[in-house]
């Protein structure tokens, strides 16, 4: 039998871990840098790295407040060692570490396949919305007069302006990650494709920045007829007022040589959809985004605000993290919340950890979960109405980048 170790990588093993992750995931090796060995958990067979796994220490908005989250990344297994349970063992070891240390209660990731991570109790918590619209279709049925103006921003000398707007925007949001400079540079402010130009614009009123857009544009739009041959891709757009939204979109919609404006990660509740005269011309597409796992249910549920005072009780069926399994009561109040065990007592319903994570982040309501068959043994008809009210979030969850 082979000698199997499940443990963090050593500093000396990190180049091997990065090389293996790059090979199996098919990504640029430059992407696999900066992770501390303490933020890894790997499977080694006879001393050889066969499964790679890392977790960035992130801060994520959870219906307003920032909470610590392990952002899982670098997940791969060598083809010769797949289907042997190594990823399951690595994930289990990571969750045990979270449970013992108590510093973090939630793990999150960008799944290659949702079905893989549902087995470990991850639930879908965000959606990614993409647009593809012709500039001429950026027309508003209720145009707003902008009191301010749009100007170009220099990334190096005015980086703080972008950070300030993003911080104000994320303050009460749900799912947004706190960005360090490295995350900005690898994500919204990353270098554009060859022969494309990057542009950063800000909308200001009386010197107060109320929005910005980062985009690049250049050749590359394929068509079989005459006309504009460029496309414009938005990498980030954050606006604090309706006037800022319209002012920024008027600018990106003003390129005559652009055939199509693309934005791959607009919020699900983006006001632009309600502003456009012909919103169908956005050609919206929606797909799943990140997934989250409540590793320590009691700590995780107590971290987010709830809009009403109430109590939710449930039986959690959790075979992967058995410390969560059993009956719980979540007592909520706008001033705080507490989750405690009530084993042996009656409960409102029974559910699994993936459904609980989706409900906690507001991905869908309890009523929607019930209609999809995700809730069992509901006590009575009033339960769903109460759960819907308690778990309502101010904003739908949204995660604005793919940098971890």
Structural commentary:
The chain is α+β, with helices and mostly antiparallel strands and 404 residues long. It has 3 domains: 4-104, Aminopeptidase; 128-285, 3-Layer(aba) Sandwich (Aminopeptidase); 297-391, SCP2 sterol-binding domain (Nonspecific Lipid-transfer Protein, Chain A, 2-Layer Sandwich). Helix content is 24%, strand content 30%. It has 11 helices and 18 strands. The protein has helices spanning 14-25, 86-101, 114-118, 159-170, 181-186, 242-252, 272-275, 297-301, 353-360, 366-371, 382-391, and strands at 4-7, 42-45, 48-61, 66-77, 106-109, 123-124, 127-133, 149-152, 197-205, 208-219, 230-239, 258-266, 285-288, 291-294, 310-316, 326-333, 336-341, 349-351. Strand 9 (197-205) and strand 10 (208-219) form a beta hairpin. The longest helix is centred in the first third of the chain and has 16 residues, at 86-101. It is globular and about 65 Å long. The model has no long low-confidence stretch (mean pLDDT 96).
